[in-house]
Design goal:
The structure is a homotetramer of 124-residue chains. With 124 residues, the first copy, chain A, is mainly α. Chain A is built from 5 helices and 2 strands, in the order H-H-H-E-E-H-H. In chain A, strands 1-2 form a two-stranded antiparallel ribbon. In chain A, helix 2 (37-44) packs across helix 3 (48-60). At the A-B interface, helix 1, helix 4 and helix 5 of A face helix 1, helix 4 and helix 5 of B. Chain A binds a DNA duplex (15 and 15 nucleotides) through residues 10-12, 36-38, 46-50, 52-53, 66-72.
DNA sequence: GTGGTCTAGACCACC
DNA sequence: GTGGTCTAGACCACA
């Protein structure tokens, strides 16, 4: 694993985002137990403190649940995870649309640029 | 104007981004002279220092040019601006694609989400 | 029974509090024998260890008494239980009063808020 | 100031609660700037880190607002503060009612205990 | 000067 | 073993 962190963003945010992606992508299943904070600290090569902070964010979103002495678990709430998946997609699409429209690009330009990117990615 | 700045991002970056958007969107024409730093400081309600930093970024990208005693000007290099416009579009589309694919979304999902957003925006 | 424990508080404290409530509320009578620790462990779905710790607290308060080979019993001391009942009521009322006065609420506000709550609860 | 912290509760929670009380009680006015984190750290005799954590909670509740390089401010949203004041009162009253009813106390007992406490406090 | 991030390391309660 | 809290101290970007 050992992410190469971008130096301009807080590490704990990058870890939180990474975990969120893994969960939404299905690398972790609902109800799964996460590695212990100490283990994740070694995996990501950061302090346990930093992991703690990252996971706190996901817990606030309801994605994680903590059992005081057993560890942290992906929520078993399947509906929440599905909703989250949809929300993320919509939110990202909306943010990108908003930004590019502000740049003065037309809907056609935006759509065509995205299609190009997706074709490029698919063919890899 | 008087942007409402997001409190968690450096103001000078937000101003730089805003200027860049205005330029790419065509609110400023190639060769146009910018308002003085002092004026912009009043417009944006920040210290001249902050404006200075923001414009420095744009100058590094070649979008602006400083004439020692006359002020700062949008580059007259039309080709550069066109190229920049294309670069921004491609870069944003690529970043979004990369991120959403990492989330495990399919090309179809991504394209359809974006179409939905664009329809929503158009109809307004 | 099978309490749904709050994940952020020690389970043994939650069990102790629950037992105390049951005793004060009269669900157990003075002199009654408690279920065995093993049974209670199954009822509460925790380890016997945890039950042990919870009951220890009640024993320290004098609410329980252990007979070496027979099990644990609610104290037969009726006066103690009555006194305990009064103490709990006073202590909780005092704590709430202290806190709300520190928030700057007036006696009238506090009293009226409590009346409202009690009316709401009664009508259910 | 220099609170005497209860040893069984996290200090940062106690500080957060204390600040919230001060704000609701009106010791800080809407829009007021808080002392710097470093100053508060000295006042409360804890690490800046701990203050940071406490204030983060209030920020999540919308009570505080951070200006990146200027400090932290009480929200100027008067309505929010009034709403908060009411919410706190209702919430505390509800929690106490719920608990005491679970103990088997009658509405009359609860109300009378609270009246006694308030009389005691008033006469001081 | 301000807030924010991160580390290293300690200590704790709980189960 | 688990998560949680706290300190001391360093470093950074921003205005």
């Amino acid at each position: 694993m050992a992410l190469s962190f971008q130096p301009d963003k807080p590490i704990y945010l990058q870890i939180a985002a990474h975990m969120k992606r893994e969960i939404i992508a299905g690398s972790y299943q609902p109800g799964d137990r996460l590695p212990s904070i100490r283990d994740m600290a070694m995996i990501y090569e950061v302090t346990p403190n930093t992991i703690q902070r990252a996971l706190q964010l996901l817990e606030q979103e309801g994605i994680l649940r903590t059992e005081r002495t057993n560890g942290k678990f992906i929520t078993a709430d399947d509906a929440l995870l599905r909703r989250l998946r949809g929300d993320v997609l919509r939110e990202r699409a909306a943010a990108m649309t908003r930004e590019l429209l502000a740049y003065g690009f037309s809907s056609e330009e935006i759509l065509s640029a995205l299609s190009d990117e997706l074709k490029g990615a698919d063919s890899q």
